[in-house]
Amino acid sequence: MSTNIIELQKDSELRSVLEETNEICVLYFWAEWAAQCTQVDEVIQDLASKYAKTKFFKIEAENFEHISEGYEIMAVPTVIITQKEKVIGRVDGVNIAKLVHEVGTTCAEANGVSAQPAASATQAEFEQDLNTRLKGLVERAPVMVFIKGTAAQPRCGFSKKIIGMLNEHSIKYGYFDILTDEEVRQGLKEYSDWPTYPQLYINGELAGGLDIVKEMIESGELMEMIPKDSIAA
Q1: Dihedral sign from CA coordinates of 103, 46, 54, 56
Q2: CB under 8 Å to 83, separation ≥6 — which residues?
């Protein structure tokens, strides 16, 4: 492992760097159980080798809940690029192209490295990259819901209802606000062959929209499908 990758052991390690220096830092939030972090692990290693003057903090999200909440980490992997306490870049899920671009754009100058301009992609390459990104998003958490707005502030009645159902049954979930990304909003409709939102995924597979989820809860089927680790004690 590169010497500039720091596996966080206590909050003060990160706090001292952010408060006492003006350095740009990369914060990589991960979880041991999340298979989707494996690919990002490898990319972080490569980026840390290239940008050796930049500190990369590897943070196990569930062990540092205060830090995770502060950066609004809803699922892993998530990468935050920060200078002092200001977020200057963010990559949610497995989006390798965006991760490489964001780190390169923000860290190149401090490392004396030329930022590589992204090569133009063909339509086929674009679609393949989008599908890879969507796969990463639906697998970000064992239970993943795509809604309008946030879990705390849903921006449509249907999204509010499905969040209420999940909370009522103590189901732990990640979420994605489709209003923040039109590419995901349109692309996921084709990816899942499901034209409306919200959409609920369990272990990367589409369970259905609001009406189907409601029926599955009433029949008991949904709770049978939910991984035990995703049900709060």
Answers
A1: positive
A2: 22, 23, 24, 25
pLDDT tens digits, residue range 147-201? 998 999 998 999 999 999 999 999 999 999 888 877 888 889 999 999 999 999 9
Report the predicted TM-score, pTM, of the whole model to 2 decimal places.
0.55
Strand partners, 6: 57
pLDDT at 166: 96
Tokens of 73: 């980490």
Residue with tokens 């690029």: 81
Rounded to the nearest 5 degrees, what angle is found at the Cα of 55, between the Cα atoms of 91 and 10?
90
